Amino acid sequence: MTEYHLSAGALTFRYLPAEARLELIDAERHERLLLFPPNTAPLLPAAAERCQPPVVELREQELLFTTHTAAGLRVETKIRSCGDHFALSSSWLPIADYELTELPLFPAGTRLGLYQLVNFRNRHHTDQVWPELPLGFGECRTDTYSGDWQFAPHPTALLLTKNRTQLFVGADSAPVGGYGFYFQCHEYTLDRWILHYGDPGCGLELKAGTAFTTPTFRLFLRRGESAFDAYTAFGRLLVREGLIPDPTAKPRFAWHRDGVYCTWNDQCARTQSLPPADLQAQAALAESEQPFLKVLDEAFVRRAAALIRHERLPLNTILLDDGWQIARGHWEPHPERFPDLRRLVDDLHRDGFRVVVWWNWAEILPEAESSLVPAHLLAGGRRNRHGRLMRDYSKPETQQEYLIPLFRRLFSSEPGCFDLDGVKTDFLADKVHPELPPADPAWRGEENYFRRVSELFLRELRRHKPDGVHIGCAGNYFLAHTIDLNRTYDVANSNPREHGNRARMLRATTPGTPVVMDMHVPRENLRDYLRQARAMDASVHVGQLFLIRDDLFSPFEPMTEADYRLLRDEL
Q1: What is the sign, positive or negative, of the torsion defined by CA atoms of 338, 293, 520, 465?
Q2: Hey, which of 22, 44, 350, 551 would disulfide with 524, CB 3.0 to 4.6 Å?
């Protein structure tokens, strides 16, 4: 029987009719990378539901697999050659209503002819941005859902490696209804590689007679490059095919990359208390356990501005971090700490500063719940898995009655508004859950919801401040056009390489978006950190003007003239 061959770049899909088996081959090295179980194909429902082997056809630049399942689905899977890569997608026509809880990318039992898995994660206390995940030793398990609270949302993409050969697999859109890849294998055998849509009862409802098309997944091979290069290549593919906006077309404003003083490190130093490095642990702290919030006030900010001018530091933006507001979720200036925020902003503007505030669209602390409008809440006011209420930004009333007036008050120069210059977003991970679907189904899915809400608030920011800045912290292709400056996130030790490799990860996954090195904590390695930022053409957020310590074991002490001279010389 005739074999079917379909090639794209160095990859070839080969279908063997005698064995009813599909395999993926590195055609240049004549090495088998994926070996599928008999009578299976990509993007088919779970094995237990199938009642017929697929019918396979080779068309021009396309392999087509057609099957019917016991659950009443007619499924067509297409493997399309796009020249230098493959595009995989599947269309389902339910005969009866069907709840989709997981979409298998490849079927269980697929053999993996590669050695390791790369899953970009942002981790503390190491400069390696992904863990070592061997495919053949015991169980290998990972996911791209943002449960680690770092750089959310992670893109739905994974990289399998074999020496200097890399097989990249990624979704070419922010999956509507999807909540991340989940991967598990043992001894080079796949147990599951799925796009998660929610546990039973919380999945994606497919209506009888209404066609459903899966996201399209792109596969390509790279050789002799780093993992950063492979992720960068995917971003270029997305730009080339018009799947994400061209980063060169996005307006950029020079002041976004000026030096920034962020109040956070000094807030912590003044209270001699450091929050946990783990962001989930930070978020779980009660307000009474966060003294670093209460020290941020107008006098603090005015003193910082005076010190910047006196020491002639090249810091042109002041970022008011967490603590300027009444509580997370109640985004009004604290009446005691900032009784006249507009006057403060006007004074700082006259002195040549821009003023940015820390903001979070997802986090609502119990102290803020009295300010909520029930009609604006997600899922009828049910609490998320962290016990918190959330606003549903997919609702027109939440947009019209809450977010649009809030951003007018924050950024407009009209009387009664604060005339601020931008926001730093933070603490956004693991807040978009399948068990709490938004009112508008088109907003369902983690990456998809993040994209839509980010586009919404950036549009409202720019309505009032055409050059306003969004300082984000996300390595995601589908958010690149919504982020003006991408920060490397908190580093809990003195290792500048953490910042450097995080910067590489951000550049690989948010094409064209400038990176800012987030705050370095002690004197130790501070010069190396500043020089690394300059070498990488990254801007810098300075976190302390008042107090600093030599290393992680030293007490905080007042900054000295030598400290200020270092900042002047190296920034």
Answers
A1: negative
A2: 551
Structure confidence at residue 50 as a pLDDT band (50, 70, 90): low
* pLDDT grade for 49, boundaries at 50, 70 and 90: low
Bridge pairing between strands 317-320 and 354-359: parallel
- Return d(Cα 298, Cα 341) in angstroms, integer: 8
CA 328 to CA 90: how far, in whole Å? 42
Q: Based on C-alpha coordinates, what's the Rg of the chain?
A: 25
What is d(CA 180, CA 195) in angstroms, rounded to the nearest whole number?
A: 6
The answer to whether the predicted template modeling score (pTM) of the entire model surpasses 0.85 is yes
pLDDT recorded at residue 2: 83
Looking at the predicted structure, is the pLDDT value of residue 72 above 80?
no
Task: Please check whether residue 432 is in contact with residue 447, taking contact to mean a CB–CB distance below 8 angstroms.
Answer: no
Identify the bridge partners of residue 377 per DSSP, sorted by sequence position: 391
3-state DSSP helix/strand/coil percent for the chain, to nearest 5?
25, 25, 45
Question: For residues 476 and 173, what is the distance between their CA atoms, to the nearest angstrom?
Answer: 11
The number of residues making up the chain comes to 571
CA angle (555 as vertex; 551, 557 as ends), nearest 5: 100
Span 155-177, average pLDDT: 97
Check residue 277 and give its pLDDT.
76
- The token pair that represents 469 in the structure block: 């800045």
pLDDT of amino acid 144: 97
| Torsion region of 422: left, alpha or beta (phi above 0 gives left; psi -120 to 50 gives alpha) | left
- Residue 307 C-alpha from the chain's centroid: 35
Query: Distance between terminal CA atoms of the chain?
Result: 68
Angle formed by the axes of helices 496-509 and 526-535, nearest 10°: 20
Which of helix, strand or coil describes residue 21? strand
Q: Look up residue 417 and give its amino acid.
A: C
For residue 566, give the 3-state DSSP assignment: helix
2-39: per-residue pLDDT in tens? 899 999 999 999 999 999 999 999 999 999 999 999 99
The angle that helices 298-310 and 341-350 make with each other, rounded to 10 degrees, is 10
Picking from 33, 92, 34, 96, the residue whose alpha carbon sits closest to that of residue 66 is 92
CA distance 53 to 35: 17
- What DSSP character marks residue 563? H
The amino acid sitting at 366 is P
The H or E element spanning position 237 is helix 227-240
Q: Which CB contacts under 8 angstroms, 24+ apart, belong to 364-370? A: 364/328, 364/329, 364/388, 364/389, 364/390, 364/391, 365/287, 365/327, 365/328, 365/329, 367/287, 367/326, 367/327, 367/330, 368/326, 368/327, 368/328, 368/329, 368/330, 369/329
pLDDT tens per residue across span 438-473: 999 999 999 999 999 999 999 999 999 999 999 999
The whole-number pLDDT of residue 66 equals 93
Cβ atoms of 132 and 115 within 8 Å: the answer is no
Residues 532 and 525: their CA atoms lie apart, in Å, by 10
